[in-house]
Every structure is written in C-alpha cells, then in structure tokens.
Design a protein that fits this description.
Blueprint lengths: L9 H10 L6 H11 L4 E4 L6 H15 L9 E4 L3 H14 L7 E4 L5 H9 L4 E4 L1 H9 L10 E4 L2 H6 L3 H9 L6 E6 L4 H10 L4 E4 L10 E7 L5 H11 L5 E4 L3 H13 L4 E4 L5 H13 L4 E4 L14 E4 L6 H8 L9 E7 L4 H11 L5 E3 L75
Parallel strand pairs: 1-6, 1-7, 2-4, 2-5, 3-4, 5-6, 8-13, 8-14, 9-11, 9-12, 10-11, 12-13
Helix pairs in contact: 2-3, 3-4, 6-8, 13-14
Length: 444
C-alpha cells in the first residue's frame, strides 16, 4: 500500500514525498480511510508509529475539499502538553504547506495576545492545550460554533493530567454534528467512557496490544543503589560517548538537581519540566536537538510531547510510579522504525515498581549489575505507586548485552567527563573517555 491508495490530493502527496515518507504505517493505513469516510474514530497505537499523520492527512484532505474557508475555525486538535501541541502543529504545517489552509497553535506559558491576533485573522485549524483554549473562549476570542472535526490527541494523558472537566467544558461548546477522533496509547475504562460520551458510533483501530513497546527499542535494567545512580549515569555517558540522552526523573526538583550535578561532572545538561517557563523549555529542547545539550533531564511532562529525530538513548533515572508511563517514556526513542536504547537504573526500593512494569509490557527486560556498582540495598517488593497520574522513578532498558565496557569500570570512582573531550579530573561522576570518540556499543 502507498499513500496514493487513499486518493489524497496532489498537494498532500507532494508534502508526504518531501517528508520522506514511503508507505503508510499500520495506524495510518487503517485510520486514514475511516476518517476520510467521515467516521468517528477511536485509535490506539504505540508512540512513534505515525499517529499524528494518521489524523492530520485526512483532516487536511477534508478541509481542502471544503474550499479553505478561513472563519470560523473548522477543526480543533486538543493535546495535553505545550510540547506536544507545538509538535503536532509543526507536523500539520509540514503536511499542509502546499494547501491554502491556515492554522494556529495556542498554549499557556506565553503571551496570549499574539495568539489572539492570529486567531482573529482567521484560521481553519487550531491546535491547543485545554487550559489556554478555555481562556480564549472566556475572552470570546475563538468561534467554535461551526467546528467540523475535533481531535483528542493523547486522550489518556489528558485524563491523567486532570483535564477531563476542561474537555467536557470545551465539547459542550461545540456543534453536536461533528466528526470526533480520539487517539490514545491505551483503551482504559476511563477512555472508553469518554468515547461513549463524545463519539458517535466510532470505528475502532488497534494496531498493537495495549501497553506494548516498540520492538526496535532495546530495553535493559541495571540494579544500582540510589545514592550511586548519578555517578553511574555520568560514567556511562562519558565511557560510551553518548552525545544525546533523555533522562527521566520523578520530580521537578530532582530534574533540576540532576542536571546541575551532571554539569558538575562535565556533561552538558538542561532540565525541562512544568515549572520552567515556555521560553526556557523551548531553549533547552532546541539545545538538545542541535547538540549543544548532551543530557536533557525531564519529568513525565516530556514523555508525550517530545519528538526528537533519531534519539538514540532514554534513561529512566527513577522508576515511574505509574507503570504505563514507562511505555511513554521509552517511546521517545525507537521512533519511525529506527533503533533505540532504553535503560533503567533500578534501586532496591524501586524493585516492586519495576516488576509491575515487566508485568505490564509482557516483554523480557534483562537485568544486570555493573562491576564497581554492585547494589547493597535490599529489594522492596511492594509497588509503592499509583495506577493513574504522575510518573517518576527509574525504569528501563539498554541494548541487550550492552557495551562490554559498560560493566568494567574496574571498581574505580569515575573521573570528571570533559564536556568537549578535554582532560579528565578526579572526583566527579563521569569519565574522560568521551575524548576517545567511541560511540555507544563500540568496544575498547
């Protein structure tokens, strides 16, 4: 099957070709025809499998057939986080760049006035976070009375973050006659209830078992004492010359502290979380993408909103309290069929939570110890976490078998990682081996 099969406009096929897409992914091949036929849709797919294009392409096709009316807004895409809203809007613009359709992205943390000006000039599509959209609605700056299509992207995450009242308030202001598309990583009881209220006889698409992980992601766990995690992480980044690693912590304070500690070890690092201003979050992400920042330390706010091309490594510095968050965290790597490594640093107190993750994903996650970092903490077999909400502490994976050198620090305290491969200083928490130019997985 090719994208020609769907009968898409030449302008869309041209944009698809410019993006380098060759054939539809499973979620695209099953969802696009249903959306084009006007059905409401419930779709579940693993992260990184092309679900954004699965709703953007048919949405653009249907709106372009309607003549490209500018006012009022004809389509609304709701997302849980600012980063995801920005990413979806970027994908939307890339796919629709040859069509005469206008779009806007609105979210909090930035000045609302430019967003108001943009909407008042007339847009066909709005990509929004719920809170900022309600603010615009209260100011009577957005007209949704003729909305044709509503998309709820990452619906399960929006419920986790407490957005259900906001979603209900928004939907109540929309026309009853509309198309509604719901995309979620899982079809939980809460999601099914939400769909029952807001969707009309929806078609259902599931392209993988619930909570499954992408096969291209190699997962591994390392048992290590909590107070030595940062030391081990710094050493692994330096010894394997990891140039780009996304690290997840449980709390905002923990993310700030770890980023500062990694900087002290000679690893360029930035923290990204909900207490950061939008400008700071944007700068940190930009630096991570362009290589200025080597380690991006994030809370789970980043698990659903970051799309980093060919991200090679994800580290769960702390195991999430909600097992499902593990799936979303490691889904930042191994996207679009590319390989990725997901590594979890598991302390004794996190053992029960990690076992809950193993049970959830139903996949073998090998566990090992690193020489010189043998754990001494007793194993806590209790899960100690929640079933819904936040996420946190350390979970998952690395290339199976890993780099032989990863487990051979010789028991010595690692030295300081020179940020640009310079001289090594003792007493830090990293390794000067970055200057040797070895890539992750390459033996000495």
């Amino acid at each position: 099957m090719t994208f020609d099969t769907f009968g898409l406009r030449a302008e869309l096929l041209r944009a698809i070709d410019a993006q380098g897409f060759t054939k539809p992914t499973p979620v695209q091949s099953r969802s696009i025809p249903l959306v084009l036929d006007g059905h409401d849709l419930m779709a579940s797919a693993q992260t990184g499998t092309g679900k954004t294009a699965a709703f953007c392409l048919p949405l653009l096709q249907r709106l372009s057939e309607g003549g490209g009316k500018r006012t009022p807004t004809r389509a609304l895409i709701l997302t849980p986080t600012r980063e995801l809203a920005a990413q979806v809007h970027e994908n939307l613009r890339d796919l629709g760049k040859f069509l005469p359709l206008r779009s806007a992205v609105v979210f909090g943390g930035v000045n609302i006035n430019p967003q108001i000006d943009r909407i008042r000039r007339g847009v066909d599509i709005i990509v929004a976070t719920p809170g900022r959209l309600i603010d615009l609605m209260q100011r009577r700056c957005v007209d949704l009375t003729r909305l044709e299509t509503l998309v709820l992207d990452e619906a399960d995450r929006m419920l986790d973050m407490g957005f259900r009242p906001a979603i209900e308030r928004i939907v109540e202001a929309l026309p009853k006659e509309r198309q509604t598309l719901l995309f979620s990583a899982t079809f939980s009881k809460e999601i099914t209830q939400l769909a029952g209220r807001f969707l009309d006889r929806p078609q259902r698409v599931e392209t993988s078992p619930p909570n499954s992980t992408v096969e291209a992601i190699s997962q591994e766990a390392i048992r290590v004492d909590q107070n030595r995690k940062r030391e081990l992480l710094s050493w692994m980044i330096g010894d394997n010359n990891w140039r780009q690693v996304l690290v997840f912590t449980r709390t905002k304070h923990g993310a700030n502290r770890l980023a500062k500690q990694l900087e002290g070890d000679g690893v360029s690092a930035e923290a990204i979380h909900g207490n950061k201003s939008q400008g700071a979050r944007t700068r940190a992400l930009s630096g991570f993408k362009n290589g200025r920042v080597r380690a991006l330390v994030a809370t789970d706010i980043a698990a659903r909103g970051l799309d980093i091309d060919q991200l090679p490594h994800v580290v769960n510095y702390e195991i999430p309290e909600v097992p499902e968050d593990y799936v979303h965290r490691i889904g930042r790597t191994g996207r679009a069929g590319r390989e990725g490594v997901a590594l979890s640093l598991v302390a004794g107190a996190e053992h029960g939570r990690f076992e809950a993750i193993r049970k959830l994903v139903s996949v073998e996650i090998p566990t090992r110890e690193v020489e010189g970092y043998a754990p001494t903490e007793p194993l806590d077999h209790g899960t100690g976490g929640k079933r819904r909400g936040g996420g946190g502490g350390g979970g998952g994976g690395g290339r199976r078998g890993g780099n032989r050198n990863e487990s051979r620090p010789g028991g010595k305290r690692p030295g300081r990682v020179a940020a640009k491969g310079g001289r090594q200083r003792n007493g830090g928490g990293g390794s000067g081996n970055a200057r040797r130019g070895r890539s992750a997985g390459q033996s000495r």
